[in-house]
């Protein structure tokens, strides 16, 4: 990050900086990122703890640039993967300008929220904003009650209630976050919405499609990679040909392979179909997707396997 950027009180100055949303699994961090950036980049899923990679989304505005670093949740590590994720969180949060602490309006503040709030003391450099998410699912009194409780946790630089679903207060949260950023020239090109590699985004779309409708224990055992791409000649000159993408889905055990593939391969066909449509939308062209399911025994605990999957 650029050390030359400076604090300023000039309200008309262009500001740019990094923000990371933290909070318990499922509080709506990825959905908020997508809603702010306006393009699907982070994986959202109703299952807890499915965001693995630090993905950046960028909100471009005439008065500033908000670079969103989407981290996996802070949680107590149980596996080597868990430890690496926590190390990633530490590295990310040590380097951002603002941390947005997300708490859902429709659930009481609990030990999980307090655990994460306490950890925020380890990142004194970052300004801290409390974001009350999912206000569409809570009553007025519940929202007020929750805001009061949030206020007792620490002196926040700001507290903002939002809904990523109805869009309520999303412009306000963007204003508030930008206001807290240092004065700085734009840090990214205007057309960029994410700096994640295209293959990584494709792999996330495949993983997301494969997660849909599977049992609770599977999310942590699924990974996807793009192995190869081949361009087919276009039928007519001046057109794009078909893009063939060869990808793998990794599970940890033989039994999980069956779950992913389904009876007679029916589930895998659905997953491939869903993922292909998403990839075509992302790339804006026709795609042929070949998906293979592979077993990589206990990959979450195996350093070599983790390396191969890009963790
Ligand atoms: N009603 C409502 N639901 C929301 C809102 N924001 C997110 N959700 C839902 O909450 C669930 C979890 O959202 P995510 O954005 O995946 O949550 P997350 O905090 O990124 O979760 P992890 O990746 O597991 O850490 C999804 O089913 C979302 O559709 C909101 O503002 N209102």
Outline of the structure:
The chain is an alpha/beta fold and 311 residues long.
From the helix content, strand content and strand pairing, which structural class follows? alpha/beta
**Oligomerization category of the chains in this entry:** single chain
Count of extended strands: 9
Mean pLDDT: 82
Sheet with the most strands? 6 strands, mixed
Bound molecules: guanosine-5'-triphosphate
Q: What Rg is obtained from the alpha carbons, in whole angstroms?
A: 21 Å
- The first-level CATH class of the largest domain is given as Alpha Beta
- Give the helix tally: 9
Shape: globular
Helix content: 25-40%
* Beta content: 15-25%
* Side-by-side strand order of the widest sheet: 2-3-1-4-5-6
* Helix/strand order: EHEEHEHEHEHHEEHHEH
**Cα-to-Cα separation, first versus last residue:** 22 Å
- What do we call the CATH topology of the largest domain? Rossmann fold
CATH superfamily of the largest domain: P-loop containing nucleotide triphosphate hydrolases
Provide the domain count: 2
Poorly predicted sequence stretches spanning 5 or more consecutive residues:
43-53
Question: What CATH architecture of the largest domain do you see?
Answer: 3-Layer(aba) Sandwich
Family: Belongs to the TRAFAC class TrmE-Era-EngA-EngB-Septin-like GTPase superfamily. Era GTPase family.
GO molecular function, one term: small ribosomal subunit rRNA binding
Pfam family, one: MMR_HSR1
Subunit structure: Monomer.
């Amino acid at each position: 990050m650029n050390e030359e950027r400076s604090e300023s009180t000039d309200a008309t100055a262009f500001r740019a900086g990094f923000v990371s949303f933290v909070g318990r699994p499922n509080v709506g961090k990825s959905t908020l990122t997508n809603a702010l950036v306006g393009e699907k980049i982070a994986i959202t899923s109703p299952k807890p703890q499915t965001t693995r990679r630090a993905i950046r989304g960028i909100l471009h505005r005439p008065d500033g640039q908000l670079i969103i670093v989407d981290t996996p949740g802070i949680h107590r590590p149980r596996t080597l993967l868990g430890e690496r994720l926590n190390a990633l969180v530490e590295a990310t949060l040590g380097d951002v300008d603002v941390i947005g602490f997300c708490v859902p309006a429709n659930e009481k503040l609990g030990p999980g929220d307090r655990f994460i709030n306490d950890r925020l003391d380890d990142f004194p450099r970052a300004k801290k904003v409390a974001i009350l998410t999912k206000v569409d699912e809570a009553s007025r009194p519940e929202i007020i009650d929750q805001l009061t409780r949030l206020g007792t946790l620490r002196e926040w630089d700001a507290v903002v209630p939002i809904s990523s679903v109805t869009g309520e207060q999303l412009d306000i949260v963007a204003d508030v976050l930008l206001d807290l950023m240092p004065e700085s020239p734009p840090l990214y090109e205007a057309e960029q919405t994410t700096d994640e590699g295209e293959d990584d985004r494709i792999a996330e779309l495949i993983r997301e499609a494969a997660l849909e409708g599977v049992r609770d224990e599977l999310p942590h055992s699924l990974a996807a990679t793009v192995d190869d791409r081949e361009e087919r000649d276009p039928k007519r000159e001046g057109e794009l040909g078909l893009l063939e993408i060869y990808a793998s889905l990794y599970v940890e055990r033989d039994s999980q392979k069956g779950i992913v593939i389904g009876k007679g391969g029916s589930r895998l066909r659905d997953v491939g179909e869903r993922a292909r449509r998403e990839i075509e939308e992302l790339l804006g062209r026709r795609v042929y997707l070949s998906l293979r399911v592979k077993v990589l025994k206990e990959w979450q605990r195996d350093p070599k396997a983790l390396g191969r999957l890009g963790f």
